[in-house]
Amino acid sequence: MRDGAMLRPQMARARAGSAAPVARVALPQLASDPFQFVDAASGLSVDVRLDGARPVAAQVARGYVIYPSAHASGAHLLHRPIADGTEDYLAFDTRPAQSEVSYGIALRTGVAGLRLVANTLELLDKSGAPRLRVSPPYIVGADGKSHNATIALAGCAADTNPAAPWGRKITAPGADRCTVKIAWNSDEVTYPALLDPRWSATANSMNAPRAEHSATRLNNGTVLVVGGINPSISVTATADIYDPGSNSFAATASMANARFGHTATLLPNGDVLVVGGQATPGYIQKTERYNGATWLQTDADPPQALTLHTASRIEGGAQVGKVLVVGGTINYPNDSSITQVLLFDPAGAGPGTFSAVASLPIALEAHSQVSEGGGSRVVVAGGFTRTEPGPTDTFQTGSYVYDANNDAAGWTFAGDTGTTRGSSDGGAPMLRLAGSGKVLFMGGNAQNTQLYTFGVVGWAAAGSTNFTHAFGAAAQLANGSVLLTGGDNDNVAELWDPSSLTWTQTDNLLGHRGDHTATAVGATVLLTGGTQFGAGTTNSAELYTTTATGTGCVANGECTTGFCAASGVCCNNACPVLINGTASCATGTCVDTCNAGYTNCDGTLATNGCNVNTAGDPTHCGACGTVCSGVNDTPSCGGGACTSVCNPGFANCNGTLTANGCNVNTNTDPNNCHGCGVVVNTSNDPNNCGACGHSCNDGNACTHDVCNSGVCFNVNLTACANGCDATVACGFADTDGDGLNDTWESHQYIDLNCNGINDVGTDTPLPGANPLKPNVYVKYDYMQTGGHTHQPSTAAINAVIAAYAAHNTILTMYTVSDSLTEHAVVSLSAPGALPQPCSGPRRRQPLHAQGGSLPGLPRARLSLRGVLSLQHL
Using the 8-state DSSP alphabet, how is residue 232 labeled? Predict the structure, then answer.
């Protein structure tokens, strides 16, 4: 985009998840003008002008800004803007008169110092962090060979100490304009040739492209990145240090030997031991040791040059702090796998010494190795064995363990993994899991992953990845999850959850990588370099950062806390699967919500969930502790409200069920007899005589069961030709309760056989009978002796009749002579009793027989002068 006198490159819109530009570049319309170079994060900036450039107008083509023949030497000037700066090319058609070019730089905003280390010029901010750099330049000839160029600085002071710059005193430039000179040896170059001084930001990029390199986390939290192979298939000796605090890379001293495929192991004192590796061509025998500023050569090296070996530090026991170097391949180009095992002692003479220890049971290379945390054992697994002639590669599935405290015991079999993982570039990722003592084996060309426990023979299944990750790299996050990245599936990344032993795909890498490194740095993982399949090797780096609480997630490992809630948000604690409820985390705190009608009443929500149904639990009805209880009932809960079902024979009749329960016994209460509000007369109701539910029915068909004054009477019916109870056949009904059925009283005669004819002769046995009032009939005899009569006086008889009348009862008395012909009569044993049909002798009772069976009737004897006996009808 043209902006006045400047061209401002517009990076193609990044795909989702790709890196945003970390530097801003504005190129001039004319080659003779400076370009502007700004660090996007800090704002630190410089203006850079190519000395000897002519005012040639810019041309734009295919992502390049071209200034044809713009340099005084006739070289063409080209810029290729990139996310972290610009590739500044000078294309020489012929050999120039001078093998040198220079740039004038004007120090602008925020430049507090300069640093020139390992052929890298860095511009520092006020904290001492490098923000912009000129990477080590190189020139590529027409024959495809790459040759290093050198950087020199004039006009400004610079720090040349290779130690990490952070936290050290800054060397002030002393001027605001400097000259940067780039020189090369033209005698080594075949022209035409292309010179490449690269201007880049230090965030997210190293000072050289590299793959099959090493990255080692130092004791101070920084990361040392060493060696590797670069795009032009040359090997680099350069080293970078990454500072997570400032998110910047700084150059440090280069190794004496360029190498890739080596091992780099942190020693107890903070030094880093680099062993073996490969050059172009051949393998490396020389061992180097980095002390934080420079590289030291050890007094002793392995017996042969080797690569594709492994190395790890012994973490416990008598050999603690020493480094075990295992296997590998030797004899380039006729490679041979070896059984050799060496123990490096960092405290040995000079910078350390090697000694041989027990050999492997089989020759191995490109295998994997891990030391026991806090212990003296080391396990190796996988890899392959190469034999000549051929060569023939046999991939191995076995594993072996060695105890540095017991060298005499040698290596013992640790179990068959059942899976081949290795590749020609090295072993598959194997990690010691912090805090568990277990080892996770993953990646390579297999998807299944396995766990090994020191002291146990055999490997346990640990889930399967969603993709293969040959040439991938892995690291354990601070939250315990494991991040497996890149490889043959380019930019794919997956997270392993140690609690569920499952793998979940997470955000893709910002760039495609294989043969890269992954290093845990606090809550992040630093990925550096690697091969971008089809696009060469990269100098880029990126951070996988776990997210804070309250942010989105798909797996536990994506969260700094290690907890991704089911709602897809990082939480500060584990959100369990809640029984009868949901656990959600919208703001970083797990909130448990019970489903409608459920709660937890015992304080064990996390373990027991919402285990109480308040809609139906009678001990927690509607709320915790609300107990449904009552009297004489079966309590229940429905819809969160207490309900009761009264026990049989009980009810609540006043609308106070909740308070008083079923407090009425409907089996005994005469005011609520067998139901609320059902009142019975317990004085004369034969079904409720004396009490509700008390029946006078004795179950005998030959008795008549009646209730009088709350007392049951079961009157025997005299057996006769007409059966036990002829009155029943006639439709017995007794409205006034006097024991005489209404039909008899209405007709004033007795019909025993229901034929409508008086069955007691011509007499009218029931004169004055009234079906609505109790009737009592008395026939009495008297005697006359010596001319004297014993007939009761009229006054006495009337007194008796009046006594009955006072109780609404009609008393009728008859007189007969002794010689009265016997005929069928009705005998009453007491007022109100059922008449007994019979035929046979008359039954006589003394006058003083019970006479008070009617309510309130005096129990005194009737004093009737001259009465000897009474016969009751």
Answer: T
Tokens of 602: 């015992």
Residue 872 three-state SS: strand
Task: Give the span between the Cα atoms of 664 and 673, in whole angstroms.
Answer: 9
In this structure, what is the dihedral angle of CA atoms 5, 7, 8, 12, given to the nearest 10 degrees? Answer: 160
| Short-list 860, 840, 841, 864, CA closest to 851 | 860
Q: Residue type for 589, please?
A: T
Distance CA(830)–CA(487), nearest Å, equals 117
Please name which of 312, 297, 310 lies closest in space to residue 267, comparing C-alpha atoms: 312
Using an 8 Å Cβ cutoff, are 402 and 342 in contact? no
The Cα–Cα gap between 598 and 184 comes to 80
- Looking at the predicted structure, is the pLDDT value of residue 855 above 50? no
The Cα 288–Cα 699 span in angstroms is 118
Where are the alpha helices (H) located in 37-120, listed in sequence order? none
Q: Residue 643 corresponds to which tokens in the numbers above?
A: 């309900």
pLDDT computed for residue 323 by the predictor:
98
CB 726 within 8 A of CB 757: no
Give residue 607's Cα distance to chain centre: 12
Quote the strand ranges of 149-220, DSSP E. 150-154, 177-183, 193-196, 198-201, 214-217
Q: Give the span between the Cα atoms of 816 and 826, in whole angstroms.
A: 15
Q: What is the dihedral of CA 280, 283, 287, 291, to 10 degrees?
A: 30
Query: Which among 608, 617, 619, 602 has a CA at the least distance from the CA of 580?
Result: 608
Q: What is the predicted pLDDT for the residue at 730?
A: 52
Whether the CB-CB separation of 253 and 117 falls below 8 Å is answered with: yes
Is residue 866 left, alpha or beta, with left meaning phi > 0 and alpha meaning psi from -120 to 50? left
Question: How far apart, in whole angstroms, are the C-alpha atoms of residue 334 and residue 711?
Answer: 126
3-state secondary structure 329-359: EECCCCCEEECCEEEEECCCCCCCEEEECCC
The token duo for 518 is 């992954």
Q: What is the pLDDT of residue 861?
A: 30
Overall residue count recorded for the chain in this entry: 873
- C-alpha count within 13 angstroms, C-beta hemisphere, residue 698: 13
Backbone angles phi, psi at 728, to 5 degrees: -65, -40
Residue 725: left (phi > 0), alpha (psi -120 to 50), or beta?
beta
**Residues 204-237: pLDDT tens digits?**
899 999 999 999 999 999 999 999 998 666 899 9
Token code pair at residue 372: 């026991």
Q: In the numeric block, which tokens belong to residue 693? A: 């539910």
Are the C-beta atoms of 556 and 549 separated by less than 8 Å? no
Q: 499-508, 678-687, 815-824, 855-864: which has the minimum mean pLDDT?
A: 855-864
Helix segments in 272-403, DSSP class H: none
Q: How far apart are CA 158 and CA 173, in angstroms?
A: 6
pTM: 0.72
- Return the percentage of the chain with pLDDT > 90, whole number: 55
**How many angstroms separate the first and last alpha carbons of the chain?**
137
| pLDDT above 80 for 484 | yes
738-743 CB contacts, 8 Å cutoff, 24+ apart: 738/773, 738/774, 738/775, 738/776, 738/809, 738/831, 738/832, 739/704, 739/706, 739/715, 739/828, 739/832, 739/833, 739/834, 739/835, 740/766, 740/769, 740/775, 740/835, 742/771
Cα torsion 630, 633, 635, 638 to 10°: value is -120
pLDDT at 720: 40
**Higher pLDDT residue, 352 or 838?**
352
Q: CA-CA distance, 184 to 72, in Å (whole number)?
A: 17
Q: Provide the pLDDT confidence category of residue 827 given band limits of 50, 70 and 90.
A: very low
> Closest Cα to residue 215, out of 247, 243, 240?
240
Beta bridge partner(s), residue 791: none
Task: Characterize the bridge pairing of strands 150-154 and 100-107.
Answer: unpaired
Q: What is the Rg, in whole angstroms, of the alpha carbon atoms belonging to the chain?
A: 58
